[in-house]
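Bench notes, afternoon.
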Amino acid sequence: MHMNPNQIPALLRVARVGLFLAASAASHAAAPTSAKPNIVYIMADELGYFEPGFMGNPNIRTPNLDRFAAEGVKFTQCLAGSAVCAPTRCCFLTGKHSGHTSVRLNGGGTPLRAGEQTIASILKPLGYATGGFGKWGNGGRGSTGVPEQHGFDLFVGYYDQVHAHTYYPPYLIRNSEEMPLAGNRGGSAGQTYAQYVIFDEAVKFIRANQDRPFLAYLPFTPPHGNFDIPDTDAAWALYQDKPWPEPARRYAAMVTLLDRQIGEIMALLKQLGLDEKTLVMFSGDNGGADYFVTPDFPRGVHSANKDPKTGVEFRGKKGQLYEGGLRLPAAARWPGKIAPGRVSNHLWYFPDVLPTIAEVTGAKAPADIDGLSLVPELIGEAAAGRKQAQHEYLYWEISGQTAVRMGDWKAYQAKPAAAWELYDLRTDVSERQDLAKARPEILAKLQAYAKAAHTPVIEGTFSTTVLHERDRAAKFGGNPPPAKAKGGGKKAADKR
């Protein structure tokens, strides 16, 4: 485990950062609620590294995200917690890397353990309102992993990932209760577009809590497939005549829809006078999927993992622990705290979000996390009162794959019996030149880190899977299958 920067005496942090009143180092006592910053984290499901306009994409219009990045800091080396949806969200929420998390499968409903702390649960003692809106993925209904048992006052959206594969479900979930959506039959058929409902609930939450500090966690589902968007949405009109396959046009429109909604959230914060009181962060959730391959575009029409300007490619894609499965588009904005127009090459990943939020709010981070606070990188080392801490190593595991990174060195093993590969990302970001035989001493060090990083997984549990299976069946609008035994749903992995 790494030393947690939030263990630095709170009095020193508060004085230098200027965010809190004086507090006891032992208790991490924070400022009055009126002085605490709001936190908004927007996570786009499956958006590739090079797909937003601010990352160079010429196809997809993202004017609000482009402005957001220009008004804050854009990151070039933000990496996912894992290469697939549920495990990466677990790393994000808990501050742990995937060698220590309770959710390492992508089955959709594998639960967090009872009592496991999250970003939301550490903010609750400070008086924060905590809301989540979108795709949860860390415990289906009837399990120990539902969001309302992990610090969230309110969560509206999909608890199970399979449920989240339709934008026209018969219902969404609101704190484990069904929230009917009129005229929907699952799949791509229906009258009520779920993302509109989820977004409206997020806006209501922000408005309702404008006079107290809040966490708004927005793991929105677009542009993850099914690639559906109403023909009446203004974003579709921008792409309906483009010379791409229809799914590629729908995908682009979904990204622009998401961009429009992000712009509306930023405008709302300004309207409510919360702009300078709110740290807003944005990223994808895992690496891009190389969708819409054609003979002319072997890495996909929208070039998720290929730089459209230079042609440099990331190897791999979603589901793999090469760079293509881990690199994320990311930016952060906080007027008066984060200097605008910056580009940061600092190396960080999802476990770092929890300790960052803990530091800026005065919350106490759990002792067993793997993340390092990004506060010096966000607001500057002078304001933070210290240099930005660097990871000794970063670690990932998923579906038998293992990867370790130490600075620019990265080791990768495709499966337990496979030979290890070694790459120097400083000169070979495409991971083409295997240096395992040339630099055995480096590889040995990374292998030792990997061995130390892994602990056996201990998952949460289900008291019953009846409602969880019902939610999975709702993807198709049909009747739920018979209930499975305790713990069911873990192995029915839908890899999308």
